[in-house]
Amino acid sequence: DLRQEQERVGRFFAIKQINDRRKTADRIKQTFIAATKSAKFYCQMEHKEFIDEFLDYPDVTHDDTLDATAIALMVAMEYVQDTGNLEGEVLDESDNVVSLKNWRSAP
To answer: What would the pLDDT profile of 38-59 be if each residue is shown by its tens digit?
Structure first.
């Protein structure tokens, strides 16, 4: 088990169990629609694999990167909703990022 392995190696990190029973495609679509509707979803331009997968979805061979990102976004959006904490870096295109805007109302 992961906790035992943390004890064994002496390295500890927080684990948040995700109990999301939606189909992967539904989780990806719903989460990214919520995250991109304000056109404030940015991605570093060097993350080409992610950007390509994002733009090509659902016509992709694997959606693991999008699914993992959707789960991380869910956790982040829950945190902001629960705490009202919006601290973070404000980015725009001059920061070598690309804005991934409203996602066709669905990926």
So the answer is: 767 788 888 898 999 999 999 9
DSSP summary character for residue 99: E
Encoded amino acid at 68, one letter: A
**Cβ neighbours for 60, distance < 8 A, ≥ 6 positions apart:** 53, 66
Closest by Cα among 83, 100, 82 to 91: 100
pTM more than 0.85: no
3-state secondary structure of 43: strand
| Neighbouring C-beta atoms of residue 1, cutoff 10 Å | 6
Which is it for the CA torsion 104, 91, 54, 28, positive or negative?
A: negative
